[in-house]
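=== RUN LOG ===
request id: a7f3
mode: sequence -> structure
chains: 1
length: 530
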Amino acid sequence: MAALRAREKGANVILVEKAAVQRSGSAASGLDHARGVYPVEGTGNPDDFAEAFMRQSEGMSNRKLLRIIGEEMPERMFYLEKYGLKIRDEQGRLYLQSGVGTTQSFILSFEGEDLKKRFDQALKENGITVLNRTMPTRLLMDGRRVAGAAVVNTRTAEFSTIGAKAVVLATGGAIRIYPSMTGLPYNTVQCPYNTGDAYAMGHQVGAEMVSFEFTQVMLTLKNYSVPGYAGAISTGARVVNALGERIMEKYHPSMLEKAPRHFVCFAVDQEIMEGRGPCYFDFRHLPEDKLEHYRHGLKNERAMILRYFDEKGLDLSKDLVEIEPAEISTQNGGVSGLLIDEGAATNVPGLYAAGDCAGGGGYCAGSNAMVFGWRAGASATEYAAGTGVIPWPGDAARAESLRALRPLGRTHGPTGRELEQKVQKTMGDYVGARRNDASLRTAVRGLENLKNYLEDLRAESAQDLLVTTEAQNGLVTGEMVAKAALTRTESRWTHRRVDYPEQDDANWKKFLVVTGKEGRTVLYTRELPE
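=== RESULT ===
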């Protein structure tokens, strides 16, 4: 969206994509829903939308940003409709439903299996240069302002630099900083190639970031990490334990399964810990038309779930579907990430962010990316138009070339995958769903020690170099998560401190900012936006 809007406003645009645009990122397999305030009678207004998502985050969001998402998301969907995205039924109507965390109908169901193909089509029709299989490794700076980026081709390991007066980061959150629940490193609940790349680049240049302690917790199918929770709950699935009890009658009787997702995830975890597991999705009470709508939605976003049901021999009208908490991540729809304003600008001149790598906006996955991607493209174009010639930082570019490619020259030393496994082990053991001072301090020390690996990392191929770079970014992200979790001495939202079990509004109803300064991670607080 950022590239399309910038091009529409007359900018020369280069889109750098680590994979390939047609099938990349969290929407690689499609998307079947989008949050917003759509023009259908009785759906509420942008203020209602903002309030609903403020409740989900227990107040730790920017109400203004949420209101913008609610108000502007319909226009982004209508824009994509022009490129062939099917968002209406056969009668031309918008199909809305309520979802997780709200009883109001703020979720548009649509046929988005080919969403990324529609984006690719739009990019080509607008003449935007796309560099597929290219990973940014570092932002290049002229003093405090952005001057461009260093990139590496993930197939050839060719190093390049790109001069730019403005840069928009939209690389998603960080998935592979915790071990996958299945034990398979790339079977993760969200796209495994979202590895905290924007976080690491932001850290390098002093970008302010927020809410890393509020990691994503969600439910997934047993032994198969895949998102599908929201679709199941929106359809009307219940969550039951091994005794057949509907557990949310105990944990959140007013909203039941439509309570904010962290309530349901923690409830399942508690039931299992107390010996009443396994837990299940129960669809058996639903009529066939509801089940068919659910299956149709899965075809548009998560067709592999249908294959899972088939291979397990599961009939949703008769059988329970076992679930478990998924691996923790920061892939949380605009919660953890670079702190942005209404124009998607960060505190670094010329640097913008949108989607899951932007922070402070509240959980609105997909919608956050489209709305603030559009705004980021406009803001970046306006900033660049008012900026004169930027001196090229040649020395910094040459230094980054040596740093980024250094692992290719080694035949001995740890691999990127080995570093990543150690980061995951540390995070899984000490920065899990239940946290305390001792475990978090152990994590911080352990992650600090892992920095000793960086000088000796080796890569035998371009693919190895990609994994090595991702692992380094994961280490930076893991440290920010651990230090933020240690610093916030209360329990709120998805952050659970067993040594500080109560919510402390007097001291902690504020953002915890994390940033990089001279290679170190520093933290401080900031009041929430009004």
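=== NOTES ===
The two ends are 27 Å apart (CA to CA).
The domain at 219-325 is CATH 3.90.700.10 (Flavocytochrome C3; Chain A, domain 1).
=== END ===
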